Amino acid sequence: MRNKSFGGSGKPLYSNNYNFAGVYILYNKSKDVYYVGQGKQVLNRVNSHFTGRGNGDVYADFKYGDHWVIKMIALENSGFNTLNELKRYAIEAYESYKKGYNKTRGNN
């Protein structure tokens, strides 16, 4: 995804039918680093990062023109009981605390 992929200031470009509770992985393909986040409405949360209302470092790199890949994992049928558990697992799996954008190891 490139900066021009989005419709502009805060306008979501998706259907709410896919706005589920889950975890998302934002992969900066240009820098080979990850950010892991969570949301009860995961698409709204993802959109916030690319419209300046989420992680500031992610937004800055997006505005700079870095290429991004987005992966979303629904909590339902994931094998985890809570979003926090799933997020902590993903942060560790993608090493996004050690080598990425995450500033914590996840919610407790």
From TrEMBL:
The organism's place on the tree of life at top rank: Bacteria
SUPFAM superfamilies in alphabetical order: GIY-YIG endonuclease
Ranges where the GIY-YIG domain occurs: 19-103
Pfam families linked to this entry: GIY-YIG
Entry-linked PROSITE patterns: GIY_YIG
InterPro entries in the cross-refs: GIY-YIG_endonuc (IPR000305), GIY-YIG_endonuc_sf (IPR035901)
UniProt-recorded name of the protein: GIY-YIG domain-containing protein
Organism, as annotated: Alkalibacillus haloalkaliphilus
